[in-house]
Amino acid sequence: MRFLLYLGVASLLVTSVLAQTRPVLFPEPQSVHYGTGRFSVSNLAVFLPVSAPKDVSFALTTLNQYVRERTGKPLKKASSSATATLTWVIAEPGRELPEVADREGASRREQYRIRLTARKIEITAQTSTGLFYAIQTLRQLMQGSGEEAAWPVVSIDDAPKLTYRGIMMDFAHGGLLTLDEIKRQIDFLARWKTNQYYFYNEVSIELDGFPTLGYKSGYTKKEIREIIAYGKQRHIDVIPFLNLYGHLHELLRKEHYADLAIGAYGHELDPRQPAVNALLKNWLRQYTALFPSPFIHVGFDETWETKRIADDKDHAINSENLWLQQLDFVQTELRQYGKTVMAWTDMNNYYPDIMKKLPPDVIPVIWEYKPDTVEINRYLNPVLSEKKPFLIQPAVSGWGHIYPDADYTYTNIDLCLRAGMRHKTLGFINSVWTDPVEPFVRASWLFMAYGSIGAWQGKSPAKQAFARSYAAIVYPSVAASLDSAFNDLAQANVYLDRCLGRNTNGMPRGTLVESWANPFLPYYLKNTQEHLSDFKKARKLSEKAQGELITALRNCDPADAGMINSLLVSARLIAYSTTRFLWAKTICDRWNQSMLDKKKNDFVVYDLTYPCHGLLVDLMDENGALKSEYEQAWKSEYLPYRLNTILGRFDVEHAFWQKLAQKVNDYRIQNPPQHVATQPFEELFKPDF
């Protein structure tokens, strides 16, 4: 009797421990039921017949990769399906990618079921997409390593809440990702069951007949085809995301094409010119031949220039009619190629009735990047009034900051997803913009995952615990360090945001533009004094994040070193941004208190310019080291295009502090040793670039 009691208690303890250590599953499946017991990964054996389709073979190959990562050994090969301990059943072949017909919401293409017992794993799916997603779930379910690696006994039934779940990556404004980095992104997004990758391009794809466009600043057609094929293997449709009206300065700034603009070397095409549509016909023929996706996003956002010229210069222009005329032309052309067209709706803000006039079959895409329900509804309501099917598009707020504004991003994604779910959106696109060029896209991966996970499960993960769970899944060997670093970087940005960025709307808004400003200007000296505590807190948190990331680098999986190093460089950039403002104030205070208040030259020049420990030298040392680290991190993520534009900032910055140090030394040399200055530092030396 006592033995049975002990056995019962032991069983309860084992069950309790298993329950406590159950893995976090992102995205959360629709139905999960755990049993008792475990299935040892070492007992897994898979039979792959020679006749297996490539998509099925690839899915099982990825499972082999995940098993090898955990155990150090490959999957066992079974001699037949009867001896296999993993079985799979797929109802229909093909259909690896999202389809236009899926918009009706009745498709079972991505559904899967897992029945995992102590002896066997059974997967059933409608298509190989479901099989691939089941394997992504098995990857997260796997616990332990080596001989101890095992899966818990569990039954899972799953399907997405949203049909279309995409990430829009900006390949127009900032650094251009290397081919390997794009593939890393696609692998990463596949973990969260993303099924669309929107390739935002203005003129960064080389096209036949346009040799000067994209030359050493874009991608070849061969590279695009490689990206498309890589995405398809992972059930991600690579969709062309163009701008066929506005945002074409990279084209129109060239003299050869300048006459196609509605403004002088402007941003927007002039639809009144036949040559414009002749060019677009050529482009559309090439883009549709290059991208097999049934979808195409044509942009049509922010065509402010045409409206400004119509309002201020040429009242004969009807900017609303031109917008509609051009969209109708593009839609008609693309219909010939069997493409389903998407377009942004933000011009509804300028033309309140535009949704009523939208060409038929164009799917409106509502974008709003503020964490504000009122702003979201301002664009959503006109679409709902016309009963149009739509997609909704939030963004990672990384375009104005060294590190994305975390809460701003989480809340924007949350609100857009809730609004989309409430009003039965067709899908969800999370934007990643690179307008300020300087920040690394890798800092946005955490938030890309957050949006992708929410889109599958129909609700956002709990943001308070998200970074911790994400770190445990993605960086298991250094999860605690990464969790702390994510939180400290986010909080450092909060404090820095209180100090900078209030007057930079449209540049874009954020801390980044001002982070390189002259910190000795009266405005900034006053601003630093007013926000002294916030600057110091941002600096302290970014230093703390650096420590955590350095620790992680020493202990991480080598495959994660590049990502962690990019985060480390971002943390150092935040620290440097705060230091240059704090040091400017400290330098002025040190000089002014000595010279003006005490009337005493008490080693102040020594404190400022001592060659290895002076305050001015501190900035040169850190800036120089950062330039080298930044360049290395850039090259691990981006192509060379635009690198020199950013490195030039470091060069100018170094010269700023070096010139100022020389001015101070020259002043000291030209005056007697006990000379006392009668002017404040900032007025006497007039620090400037």
Automatic annotation (TrEMBL):
Please state the Enzyme Commission number of this protein: 3.2.1.52
Instruction: Identify the InterPro entries for this entry.
Output: Beta_hexosaminidase_sua/sub, GH, Glyco_hydro_20_cat, Hex-like_dom2, HEX_bac_N
What keywords are annotated for this sequence in UniProt? Glycosidase, Hydrolase, Signal
- GO molecular function of the protein, one example? beta-N-acetylhexosaminidase activity
Give the Beta-hexosaminidase bacterial type N-terminal domain ranges.
24-159
Q: Where is the Glycoside hydrolase family 20 catalytic domain?
A: 163-370
What reaction gets catalysed by this protein?
Answer: Hydrolysis of terminal non-reducing N-acetyl-D-hexosamine residues in N-acetyl-beta-D-hexosaminides
Report if keyword Hydrolase is assigned: yes
Q: Name one GO cellular component term.
A: membrane
Instruction: Please list the residues that make up the active site.
Output: E302
Q: Span of the secretion signal?
A: 1-19
Gene Ontology biological-process annotations:
carbohydrate metabolic process; glycosaminoglycan metabolic process
| PANTHER family assigned | BETA-HEXOSAMINIDASE (PTHR22600), BETA-N-ACETYLHEXOSAMINIDASE (PTHR22600:SF57)
Which family does the entry's similarity section mention?
Belongs to the glycosyl hydrolase 20 family.
What is the protein named? beta-N-acetylhexosaminidase
What is the organism lineage in this UniProt record? Bacteria, Pseudomonadati, Bacteroidota, Cytophagia, Cytophagales
